[in-house]
Amino acid sequence: MKGFMLLRIFLILIFLLSNSYAENLKNCEWDNRKGTPCIVISKTPNTSEFSELGINKIVITKEEIDNLGAVDTNDVLKLVSGLDVFQSGTKGQSTSVFTRGSESNHTLVMINGIAINDQSVTDGLHDFGQDFIQGIQKIEIYKGSSGAHFGPSAIAGAINFITAIDYTNSYSVNGYGLKNNSFGANYTMITDNDWHLNFQSSATLSETASAIADGAEYDGAENFQVNLNSEKWINDNLKFRSTAYSRKTVADYDGSATDEFGYVSDNRMYTIQTGLEHVSKKSENNLILHYHNYDREYENSGYLDEYDSESLVIRGESKNKSTNKFSFGYGTEYKYDWGAFENRGSYTASTKGHMKDLGVFGNIGYKFNENSILSIYLRSDDHNTTGQNETYKVNFTKLFGKFKFGLTHSTGLRNPTLYELYGSDNYGIGGNVNLNPEKSETNELSLTYNIFENITFNSTAYRAKVYDQIETNAAYSKHENQLIDINQEGLENELSFNRNNESLSIYNIFSKSRKTNGQAQARRPDLSYGLNYFKNKVSTPLGFVNLNINYKYTGKYVDWDGSANSKQKSTDIVDLSITKNFIGNTLYLKLTNLLNERYEKPATYSQDGRRIRFGFKRSF
C-alpha cells in the first residue's frame, strides 16, 4: 500500500504546480517541433510513403481509450474484431490473445515498434493480463502475417503499444467499492531550452471472487506503473526522444481447478528506449536503442519459481521518397536475448540460454498512377540456431471510383523459444537445438466501399496455412516440428458510420481454424459479431454527456473443461460508458457486462458479472 500513499502525495504536488506550465501547453503543432503536438504520429517499420498504403492497421487513440473507461489492455482488445481474449479469471490473471484463430504466441507484442517478448516464457506468448492501460497513448493492431515488418513471431499479426508524451496534465481516480480502485497522474513540462519532459504514473488495486469458477476464496491484483518520456528537437531536422517504462503486478493465482490457495505472482518489467529521428523533405531516418527486462517470481506452497530474461535491440531505418511515383526504405535490426528460469515443487523445470538474431529489411512502393499502387516488403533474419530465414509481403491496391481493392500475399515465422531449445523437466522432456522455425503463408483480399460520404463498408477474406508447428512428441521426450499443418480461413465484415459527433461500427467475423486432420483448435470461436457506438454531447436531464456502447457476441468454441474437450457456451457482453465534462473535470460512469452474463472464458475460470465503476479526471 506504500505505492498508493506515494501516488497520493504526487497528486497533491502536481496540483500545486498545475498552473506553472499550463500556458505553454495551450498551443499545439502537428509536427512536434514548436509548442505541443496535437497527435501522436507513428510510422509502421519497414515502410515508405507509398508502401505504407498497403498496411492493414487499426489505431485506437488515447481519446478512445478514455471514452471506454479502460483500466487494463484487455478492456480495449476484447472489443476489437478478429481478436479473441481469454483471461484465466479477473484482472491481473494470465491472459492470452488469439488473432484470426492462430496460436496465442503468433501475435507479436511491441512497445514503440520494438518486440518485448519474454524469453523465460516456455512457449513465447505475451501475458496481456499484466498490462494496464494508463501509460499508453495509442494502440496499433496489425491483423495478418507481419513478419516482413516486425520480424519473427508476427505470424498472425502484431500489437504495438505507443508510450509517447501525453500533453494533457491530469490526475484521475476511478473504481467501485473499497478494494477496486485505480489512480493515475500525468504531468508534462516544456523547459526554457525546449525539452519536453513527461511523467506518468498509476496504481490499480483489484479484488474479486476466486479466479476458479465456484472457488471459495478471493483473488486480487495490485499494479504499479511509471513512465518517463522526453523529447527535444536538436535542430530543425533532428529530434531526440527517450522512454523509460516500468510496471509491477502482484496477483493471486489459482494453480488449477482444484488448487486455488497459496499461489502468488510478482511480475516486474522494465523498458528503456532512446533514439534519434532525422526528417527532411524526402527522407526519414531513425536509430533506436532498446533494452527490456522481465523479473518474475511465483510463490506456491512454500516453493519459489523464478523467471528472468533480458533483451537488447539496436535498429536503424531509412525511408525515402525519390520521385512522385516511387518510394523505398531499408534498415537493419540486431536483437540479443538472454533468459533463464527455475521451476521448483512437485513439477520441476528449468532452462538457460541466449539467442541472437540479425534482421535486414527493405521495401518499395510504386504508384503506377493515382489509382494503382504496388508495395513489396522483404526481410531476412539470421538466427543463431535456425539460421537464415526470409519473410516477405506483396500488396497491390487499386482504387476504382468509390471502391478500393487490396490483394496481399505474406509470410511469417516464429523461432523456437529457449525452453523449446534447451529446457528440461521432471517428466523427461528435453530441448531440441535442431528445431526449425514455425512458418506461415497468408493470402488476403480486401474491399472498401464508400457507400456515402460518411458510410463505409469494409470486407477482408483471408486464408492462411501454418506449418512446422513446434510441439512435444508422442513420447513426451522432446519438442519436434509437427507434420500436421493448421489451416485458417475467415471473412471479416464491417459497416461504419461517422459524422462530427457520432460514430457506429457494426461487424461480424466468420473464422475457422482447423488442423489438417480435421481437429478444431481450442479457444477459437467460428463466429463473432458486435457493434461499437459513440455519441458526443447527448442531451440528458443532467446536461450533455458522451455515450459509448460496446457489444460483442462470441460463439461457441472447444475448450478443456477439466475432464475433456467440450463445447463452451456463447456469450453476449455489453459495456456502457458515460462521460461528462464538468467545470474542467471529466466524470466517468462505466457498466461492464451490463447483461450480467455468467460465463467461463477459458473454461473453469470465472469472469466478472455486472460491475459499476465511477471515475473522476481533472485536467489542468
Secondary-structure topology with pairs:
Blueprint: H1 2-16, E1 28-29, E2 36-37, E3 57-61, H2 62-68, H3 73-77, E4 83-87, E5 95-99, E6 107-111, E7 114-115, E8 138-143, H4 147-150, E9 157-162, E10 170-175, E11 181-190, E12 196-209, E13 218-233, E14 238-252, E15 263-279, E16 283-300, E17 303-321, E18 326-343, E19 349-369, E20 372-383, E21 387-400, E22 403-414, H5 418-422, E23 424-425, E24 438-452, E25 455-467, E26 470-472, E27 479-481, E28 486-499, E29 502-515, E30 527-540, E31 543-554, E32 557-560, E33 565-568, E34 571-582, E35 585-592, E36 611-619
Parallel strand pairs: 1-2, 6-9
Antiparallel strand pairs: 3-8, 4-5, 6-7, 8-9, 10-11, 10-36, 11-12, 12-13, 13-14, 14-15, 15-16, 16-17, 17-18, 18-19, 19-20, 19-23, 20-21, 21-22, 22-24, 24-25, 25-28, 26-27, 28-29, 29-30, 30-31, 31-34, 32-33, 34-35, 35-36
What does this structure look like?
This protein is mainly beta and 620 residues long. It has a single domain (2-619), classed as TonB-dependent receptor, beta-barrel domain (Maltoporin, Chain A). The chain is built from 5 helices and 36 strands. It has a 22-stranded antiparallel β-barrel. It has a 5-stranded mixed sheet with strand order 3-8-9-6-7. It has a two-stranded parallel sheet with strand order 1-2. The chain is globular, with a radius of gyration of 24 Å.
